[in-house]
Design a protein that fits this description.
The chain has 932 residues and is of the alpha/beta class. It is 47% helix and 18% strand.
Length: 932
């Protein structure tokens, strides 16, 4: 409804008609009309064109114009407002023509009254609005039809029965049919039945869900096979009901063929790459096998008596073989990187030890060229980080090796600095500098590309594949860093690279604190003709709290020693290079020993050569330690601490020597144990004590082996697959009752609760030891049966030993406890750890498979096995989680099994990393004295 008055215009030459109509409208008693008047034809037509009125009352007869001319012109000009024709007399034919011309109503002037004029206006307005709506709908339909017909994609609509009710021109052309041939048909009329069924299924899905469906599908209309991308949507009526479906699709055959071709090319490339990798791996094996024999046998022959010519020839063979092996390694690494198959390991490692060991491995090459090789690691570099030490070592070996190769005289130095650091991560900056031949400027931009070499061409002096720096660049990128080079021809080069590492929270102190405190303030004189070495020594010694002084020659050092002695503040210790110009280190020490005031000075010699004569000189001159350059920080610290008589903390953790109070004769022992880690530990201990061990992994195997062998003792695990230890013991005792005899059986069990001992003894066992195994407990239990008569008789049950900590170790394993468990035998502990690393990944995979199938008995068994494998390392979070998982499986409650397994997997990963790190670097005497 309109709130304003309806504006009505009368177009009539007779003013009396206007007066009449105005009176009638006023007479109707309403004020909703505003009537205006214009007498002329043209003026009236102009007003109609302005569209300022809601309705028009038009005379049917104007002078000089036809009876219906004004109505016709108004309609032709697009008038949408109602046109009511006023006639002087009633004529049905005129009325009919007026309505056909576009008039809304026809009124006779002589019959006008208030009611008829108001009714006619209201009717005209309603009809006009309806016509406007219809016209608008027609316009929209025409616009939609025009738009859809002009689209270059196919558009079609179907009713709920799947019949086509619309199709645009593009679809008609696509099918080669006219619209008449398409309407009323279904997909089954145009496509194979299986394709039509697929289309029908998609339509039903759109109708059922009310959502758009979009995919790429095969269209086989008229036997042609095309790929089309389709969008199907539901069609709604005015009340929102779904009355059909609409589909828009377009031909993507070329694109799909390109995608298919690309996929096939990708698969072919991958297959070729796999073939290449397999070929390289096979070739590597085939070449390495004879090459290893060539290198190995050549080295053996070189250790025999040879004449100079033979030795020269064999040295050439050895050098050529090692060069070929280096080429093979480079090519294999490059192929792995290119195939994306090279991944970085993640483990905790000591950066200083890794860099130091790497530099030492290159020392021989540097010495052969009379080069000074040194490395410096900044004090703020973290002691331990997470990363791949092997790949870092590979980068360093390549860069330092190249520096040595291209340097004729001078020095090669590795510097490691902190680029940036946070609480959890550090970016380190490595710099390898040399005083070699340098690199031409035009080569600097391409030197890291594959097969590129600075020394190229037919006259090049140095060999190599040109892959080393490319491999370094790729490895550095994997480590989250960048690599670059600075060089000037004839003045040497500096290779830089950065790498990101996570800081290990288990970092050990850089130096043992107690020893450092005892050494603080000690005056030390450092003698070395190389300024870089002096700088490195000064920094290390100052960081440890010592008071270093520096000398660049033997004569300067002697003068400083004498001056210090006279001042009453003598140097306690001298660290000297062996090879120096003028007076070498040994000659200087000899003069010191001949001077009574300097004779007692403690001396440490560092040498770039490992000649046997150097060691002899050191012994003759009373030198405390002779170190091989480049000297690692740990080596220098240990040498100084030992020379000054400082007891290192590691000494307090040496495994106590066990007496022989329980020594027994050699026994034939049957060990029944299914856990490989515990097998390794128990077998190692028993064989260490001189016993011969036969292994059984189940209760059935134990009974079988007992029947077919003669054993002095059985050590029986309680929980085993197929038949547990208690059942096996009862069966053995039943057989002994028939056959006679009695073999002592000692139980090994993780169940150390009250009543477990009684349960073992009631099954027929004679002794009892709790897991984790303690060497002295097992040995005492065995001695109770086979020791000398003075030993206590009768069954012995070793009470469970309380772990050092009642709470599990959150970070780091209890290495002193692990070492004690192995009777102080480091080699045995390493074997146990190697077995642990071999077994745990298999157990984890089996556990995940069992959880996926809901196999509760297997889950319980595997959790128990994992828990047992962890016991030698003390109380751990992983052990607690494994026990919870075991209990859940025992109770049949597997709801939390996946979460527990995920937590267990994370904890085991940390333990595996720590154990792997110790296996790798734990050969030193101090490796197990404290948590790594």
């Amino acid at each position: 409804m309109l709130d304003r008055k309806l504006r009505i215009l009368l177009i009539d030459e007779d003013e009396d008609v206007f007066t009449l109509l105005r009176g009638l409208l006023l007479q109707s008693g309403t004020s909703k009309y505003e009537l205006t008047w214009t007498p002329g034809f043209e003026e009236g037509l102009a007003e109609i064109r302005r569209c300022d009125h809601d309705a028009y009352l038009v005379d049917d007869n104007f002078t000089d114009y036809g009876r219906l001319e004004l109505v016709r012109r108004a309609v032709a000009d697009g008038c949408r407002a109602p046109l009511i024709l006023l006639s002087s007399y009633e004529d049905r034919a005129v009325e009919h023509d007026a309505i056909q011309a576009g008039a809304t109503d026809y009124l006779v002037k002589s019959r006008l009254d208030a009611a008829s004029i108001e009714r006619s206006i209201r009717y005209a307005m309603e009809r006009g609005r309806r016509q406007q709506v219809e016209a608008s709908l027609q316009d929209s339909e025409a616009l939609y039809h025009s738009l859809v017909q002009s689209l270059p994609v196919c558009v079609l609509r179907k009713d709920l029965n799947g019949k086509f009710i619309f199709a645009n021109l593009a679809y008609c052309e696509f099918t080669g049919r006219s619209l008449v041939e398409i309407l009323g048909k279904t997909d089954f009329d145009f496509s194979p039945s299986d394709v039509a069924e697929k289309f029908q299924k998609d339509d039903h899905t759109v109708v059922a869900t009310g959502r758009q469906l979009r995919n790429i599908e095969v269209n086989q209309t008229d036997g042609r096979t095309l790929w089309v991308e389709v969008i199907k949507t539901p069609v709604h009526d005015s009340r929102g009901r779904i009355v059909g479906t609409q589909a828009i699709f377009w031909d993507v055959t070329e694109r799909q063929l390109a995608v298919t071709a690309l996929q096939r090319a990708k698969e072919a490339a991958e297959a070729a790459n796999r073939s290449k990798s397999e070929f390289l791996a096979n070739m590597s094996h085939e070449i390495r096998t004879p090459l290893n024999a060539v290198i190995g046998m050549t080295e053996l022959v070189l250790d025999t008596s040879l004449n100079p010519t033979q030795r020269e020839y064999l040295q050439m063979v050895l050098s050529s073989g090692e060069s070929l092996l280096s080429v093979i390694n480079d090519i294999l690494d490059f192929s792995k990187i290119e195939a994306g198959k090279l991944d970085l390991d993640r483990r905790v490692f000591d950066l200083r030890e890794t860099a130091g060991d790497t530099m030492k491995s290159l020392a021989l090459r540097a010495r052969s060229q009379a080069l000074e090789l040194a490395f410096h690691i900044a004090p703020d570099v973290p002691a331990a980080v997470w990363g791949d030490p092997n790949r870092l070592r590979q980068i360093l070996v390549n860069l330092v090796g190249n520096a040595i190769k291209f340097t004729d005289a001078g020095e090669v130095v590795l510097d490691v600095l902190v680029d940036s650091i946070s609480d959890s991560e550090v970016t380190l900056h490595f710099e390898v500098s040399d005083t070699g031949i340098g690199i031409p400027e035009e080569k600097l931009s391409s030197i890291f590309e594959a097969f590129e070499q600075a020394d190229s061409g037919p006259t090049r002096r140095f060999g190599g594949t040109g892959l080393g720096l490319t491999i370094c660049a790729r490895l550095v990128a994997l480590m989250g860093g960048t690599i670059w080079v600075e060089s000037q021809l004839g003045y040497g080069s500096k290779f830089h690279f950065t790498a990101r590492f996570e800081i290990a929270q288990t970092s050990v102190p850089k130096i043992p604190p107690a020893a450092a405190v005892r050494m603080q303030g000690t005056r030390i004189l450092v003698v070395d003709d190389n300024m870089t070495n002096r700088r490195i020594y000064q920094e290390m010694l100052t960081n440890w709290g010592l008071r270093p002084s520096l000398a660049s020659s033997g004569r300067e050092a002697l003068a400083l020693l004498v001056a210090a002695s006279r001042s009453g503040q003598p140097f306690k210790l001298l660290v000297s290079d062996a090879e120096m110009p003028g007076i070498d280190g040994f000659s200087m020490v000899k003069e010191m020993r001949e001077n009574p005031k300097l004779a007692e000075t403690i001396v440490i010699i560092s040498s770039s050569a490992d000649r046997p004569t150097d060691l002899a000189h050191c012994r003759d001159l009373g030198v405390a330690a002779c170190l091989i350059k480049p000297v690692k920080q740990s080596e220098l610290f240990d040498a100084i601490a030992e020379a000054l008589g400082v007891t290192l903390p590691e000494d307090a953790h040496e495994a106590p020597a066990h007496d022989d109070a329980h020594s027994t004769r050699s026994l034939k022992v049957l060990l029944a144990e299914d856990n490989r880690v515990n097998q390794k530990l128990a077998v190692g201990l028993l064989e260490k004590w001189g016993h011969k061990v036969t292994l059984a992994e189940t209760g059935y195997q134990a009974i079988h082996n007992w029947k077919n062998g003669s054993f002095d003792l059985i050590v029986m695990d309680v929980q085993m697959p197929e038949m547990d230890g208690l059942q096996a013991t009862r069966k053995i005792r039943e057989l002994e009752a028939e056959l006679g005899g009695h073999t002592p059986i000692i139980a090994m069990t993780a169940h150390a609760m009250t009543g477990d001992r009684e349960q073992c003894l009631s099954s027929g066992m004679d002794g009892y030891v709790a897991k984790p195994l303690r060497m002295h407990e097992l040995r005492a239990a065995i001695a109770s049966f086979f020791a000398e008569p003075s030993a206590l008789a009768g069954p012995v049950s070793a009470e469970p030993v309380v772990p050092p900590s009642e709470t599990p170790v959150a970070i780091g394993l209890d290495w002193p406890l692990a070492l004690d468990t192995c009777g102080g035998d480091r080699a045995l502990l390493l074997d146990v750890m190697a077995t642990f690393l071999d077994e745990i990944p298999k157990l984890k995979m089996q556990l995940l498979a069992s959880i996926s199938t809901g196999d509760a008995p297997h889950i319980r068994r595997l959790s128990h096995t994992i828990k047992g494998a962890l016991r030698p390392f003390g109380h751990t979070q992983a052990g607690d989680i494994a026990e919870k998982l075991e209990q859940s499986a025992r109770d049949g409650q597997l709801d939390s099994a996946e979460d527990l397994a995920a937590s267990l997997d994370q904890e085991l990963d940390l333990i595996q990393t720590e154990v792997a790190n110790v296996v790798q670097v734990g050969q030193s005497a101090s490796a197990f004295s404290a948590s790594p």
